[in-house]
Amino acid sequence: MEQNKRYFRLGLFVTVAVVILAVILFILGGRSLFQPTLTFETYFKDSVAGLDIGAPVKFKGVPLGQVVEIVGSAPLYELNEPVDKRRSYIVVRVKLSGNEKQVREWRRDLDAMVTMGLRAQTQLAGITGQQYLALDILDPKTHPTLPFDWKPEYPYVPSAPSFTGELLANAHQFIASLNKADVALLGQNLNKLVVTLNDKISALPVKELSADAVEVVEGARVAVARVNEVLAKPDVDAAVHNLASASARLDRLLAEPGFKQTVDNAAQISARLRKLADSGDLDRMAKNINDAAARIDGVIRDNQYDVRVLVQDLRVTAGNLRTLSETLKRYPAGALLGGPPDKVKIPGKSP
Predict the structure, then answer these.
(1) Is 24 a member of any domain?
(2) Burial state string for 49-87 with b = 16 or more CB within 10 A and e = fewer than 16
(3) Is residue 65 situated within a structural domain?
(4) Is there a domain that residue 312 lies in?
């Protein structure tokens, strides 16, 4: 009985552990099983070296999904075809996942986008050399679909060569378009160019150029020697020392709080003046001064005669004051008593 209880507890523990593990796995990645996905395939005629399973898929730089399968078309669709008649394409299958709304939109509009020119290209991801699959809208006339005779298992998106592939194709096409006459003419032109270059080089005054180069080098040496002599003089060291001292003094001046306070005060004054200018007080002040000056001009113009008479009276008054001052200097008592003092008679003397 005790042993049966022990087995029951062990079985219960294992069952609970399995349930907990299943819940954890579902939380970590099981929810993706219920998310909508869209799988489509594309075919490449050339090599897709560097494109691996799990490589990202982007539409104009926006991540959409990843590559889930890379396989040849022979084992998928051409097993019953002779070897010499097989297309031998590279089938790349892509799974779009993630945003439910986005996946549904792609599922609904995929055929229309292919008609508009949706194409798949292999692109390099920066300097790492890793390739990813890029989807973009291209011109359907210049990027036609590859021919095939089977029914795709998933929706089909045509491919387009990458930039490097297009460049190589254009180069091969250019070389193939050249005929023998063009190649011969190109060779003749190259020979003429080489002969012309040889003649030009032979006509160059090599000795004169060498002499000029030697003179230039000698002049550079003399200039460098003079610069060294100037730098070796004590005046240069003194000038550098004075410059360093001036720089140190300037640093000390800038570090003083008074200088900072002066700069702050100047900034405050400038702000106040700017505030006055913005508020219009300066304009009103200037207008008031102009009005006052105009009024003073009017008063002077209206009372010009009275001002002239007043000036003459002031002149007469100034003359009288000058005469009174001289009199006070000669007869200070007489100016106060009304006349010069009488002469004093001394007894015993005749008048």
Answers:
(1) no
(2) eebeeebebbbeeeebbbbbeeeebeebbbeeeeeeeeb
(3) yes
(4) no
Amino acid at 212: D
φ/ψ (deg, to 5) at 116: -70, -20
Residue closest to 76 by CA, chosen among 94, 59, 90: 90
- Identify the weakest region by mean pLDDT among 61-65, 176-180, 267-271: 176-180
What is the model's pLDDT at position 27?
66
Interval 22-31: pLDDT, tens: 777 766 655 5
Three-state helix/strand/coil letters over 138-170: CCCCCCCCCCCCCCCCCCECCECCCHHHHHHHH
Structure tokens at 7: 């087995």
Its domain, for residue 98, covers 33-161
Residue 68 and residue 95 in contact, taking contact as beta carbons nearer than 8 Å: yes
pTM: 0.43
Tokens of 123: 């692109």
Compute the distance between CA of residue 114 and CA of residue 140 in angstroms, rounded to an integer.
Answer: 9
Over residues 156-178, mean pLDDT: 69
Specify burial of residue 133 (Cβ count, 10 A radius: 0-12, 13-18, 19+): buried
Count of domains forming the chain: 1
Could you give the C-alpha distances from 8 to 3, 15, 20, 235, in angstroms and in order? Answer: 9, 10, 18, 103
Spatial distance between the Cα atoms of 233 and 221, rounded to a whole number of angstroms: 19
> Residue 73 contacts by C-beta under 8 Å, 6 or more apart in sequence?
43, 86, 87, 88, 89, 90, 91, 148, 150
Residue 113's pLDDT is 92
For residues 299 and 219, what is the distance between their CA atoms, to the nearest angstrom? 81
* pLDDT digits 0-9 by tens, 46-65: 888 888 999 999 998 888 89
Residue 323 lies in a domain: no
pLDDT, tens digit, 9 for 90 and up, residues 186-204: 777 888 788 787 777 777 7
pLDDT at residue 348 above 60? no
